[in-house]
Amino acid sequence: MATLFHYPFCPHSRFIRLVMAEMGLESALVEEKPWERRQEFLIMNPAGTLPVFLEEQGFAVPGPAVIAEYLDETRGLGLDGRRLLPDNPAARVEVRRLMDWFLTKFHEEVSSYLVTEKIYKRFIGVAAGGGPPDMSAIRAARVNVRYHLKYIGFLIARRNWLTGPDLTYADLAAAAHLSCVDYLGDVPWDEDETAKSWYARVKSRPSFRTLLADRVPGMPPAANYADLDF
């Protein structure tokens, strides 16, 4: 069986967990704390980032976008209607564009700030950069999340899912990152009902159940986090 090295509140890891659940793929889950920089983990992925998908034969695939592409190439053709990357080249470009939007842009502007400042720093020693959260970073993320939410609403007002008629990697990337922010209570859902309705559809899917069960020790989730009807 393959193994996924992940951290429960790493949004990139959550994306791949959703992908695998939607594809009906099973793997062993190994929780990895990236700030510990374990030597064995760095051998698999010198960048020290999550997630890492380890094939049963010992072949390591690092990074969310790389893993998503790899799973499509190695498992996608046998999934019939559950494939998360469309056949049409133009449609594939749009999926990749929006997947990159959330895995890169949203992460850099929103989820990385909030997860690092509110969660990771709780478990990192002060000498290694832990300690109290940087409120200026949190304030910036709270401002930035608003225009990302509006963009989701703009897309969903014209499409059934983010890139078109079917659920794709783009929806799962966006939902994975938003789920971490939602746990912390920093998504202003009342500002865009269209985006809120789309997220409710995604988090109601069976693939989301294990994510909604995740908890940060000593930090309960926002009241609406596991409420499928908000």
Automatic annotation (TrEMBL):
GO terms for biological process: glutathione metabolic process. This is Glutathione S-transferase. PANTHER family: GLUTATHIONE S TRANSFERASE D10, ISOFORM A-RELATED. It comes from Pseudochelatococcus contaminans. Homodimer. PROSITE patterns: GST_CTER (PS50405), GST_NTER (PS50404). Keywords: Transferase. Residues 88-221 form the GST C-terminal domain. Coiled coil: none annotated. Its EC number is 2.5.1.18. Residues 1-79 form the GST N-terminal domain. Gene3D superfamilies: 1.20.1050.10, Glutaredoxin (3.40.30.10). GO terms for molecular function: glutathione transferase activity. InterPro entries: Glutathione-S-Trfase_C-like, Glutathione-S-Trfase_C_sf, Glutathione_S-Trfase, Glutathione_S-Trfase_N, Thioredoxin-like_sf. It holds the Pfam family GST_N_2.
